[in-house]
# Entry
Amino acid sequence: MSNPVIEAIKSRRSCRAFKPDPVPRELVEQIAEAGLWAASGMGRQPVKIVAIADKALRDRLADQNRRIGGWPEGFDPFYGAPVVLAVVANKEAFTAVYDGSLVMGNLMLAAHSLGVDSIWIHRAKEEFESDEGKALLKSLGIEGDWEGIGHCALGYAAEPLPAGAPRKPGRIVWA
# Structure
């Protein structure tokens, strides 16, 4: 029996080459809202999503991410994605990292279900712990102690996505 949610989980792939084509705001809004429906510890909902479609800000964030990752000038760690959803979680919640990770999963699955490609990019933790990252959050009205969880880069694939790797056997243990 086929189930659309399970099929989406099995067919979603990370995209490492995006077209410059913009993603319609309505789709980004739907994807972000789906992220906010992720489960959270004790229902606290300690996660915020910073939707970055402004090219100058996106490029500034990409450059900071590139420097943290140690890549050469000109490398784009967001692979040309025109939109980046930065997920941050309030450190006061002891489940912050887990809650933010669930949001990231929802974002990628929602994007896939709407025909938008995505990839989870790391180094958000280091970005938003830096003075530059804290200043960015503050400029957006996000104050307090926030941890960067990840970036969900969104766009349309510039080349076919790879097939999924076979799943390793023996990873479900029944008791």
